[in-house]
Amino acid sequence: MSRQKKSQGLPLWLIVLLVLIAAGGGFYGLRQNGGDASLRTTEELDPSIYYENANSLRGNTYKIDAEIDSALGNSPTKGRLYSVTIKNSSKNGAPVVLPVLVPLELNNLTIQKGQHYLMKVKVVDDGLLKVEEARKP
Predict the structure, then answer these.
(1) Average pLDDT of the residues in 45-59
(2) Which of 15, 79, 108, 109 maximizes the CB count within 10 A of its CB?
(3) Which CATH architecture has domain 42-135?
(4) Where are the domains of the chain?
């Protein structure tokens, strides 16, 4: 009587390889989508509402897709003030320019004219946009 060979299933090395490929694909997919849930789930700022009455937006958090226009000022106690041009937005055909305050907590950012940033901003008490988070796309 002959013995039948028992099937052994997938080898361990193949299972490990498949798991690594799946994990790498997931990591790559998250990086392509920004990988940052705080910006993905944040509502975009409507510049026309901001221009109409910035105080009505106080306390709210928004995201903006901005290009640095120019430095407006620097305060050793509050941070750096910049004007930014909002990408893909225009008011009556003119580019939309907004002021943003980069607080001292984000002092590690090296911001220069013409750089492009995705920013999470909060409308503070005086209607100014205070940057909470900024990253290059």
Answers:
(1) 88
(2) 79
(3) Beta Barrel (2.40)
(4) 10-37, 42-135
